[in-house]
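Q: What would this chain look like folded?
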Amino acid sequence: MRDWKGAAEALEQLLDKFPDSEPAVEATLLRGRALEKLGESAGALAMYRQVVDDYDVNPRTAEALYRAAQLHDRLGQQPEALDCYSRLVEQHADFGQLDAAIYRLAWLSRETDPATADDLFARLRRDFPESPYVPDATLQLAERAFVRQDYAPARKLLDEIAGA
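A: My prediction, written as structure tokens:
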């Protein structure tokens, strides 16, 4: 069993001693992960926010945004999750899990902004054709086309799914 409490404490001590050191970004992110594992959501979100706010030019910022978005999402904090996913998608085109971020952003946008959700699902299909999220994105687009009584595109999208 991993000692998440010990890790969180050790990382806090490291950050207290060397707050401006080069590994501070990594330590802050890791402390957030440890706190998240301990169920301390507020503390984890504070660590992720610190990475995003204090180290915005660091490559680890994208991971902090993604982890914060996922945690907000799990906590049912939709506006905060939407904000984090949006920032991630807009500002970090090279993020390794961008397809997952686009997919989740699209799902969260469905109720409040269906047109944006459609655009995101279409972007996912276009930019990440091999993503495991593409079949569901295709289904979502087919359902929306059907609701609009736009049957030809709905049929075409459903045929793509059936062919896969």
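The chain has a mean pLDDT of 90.
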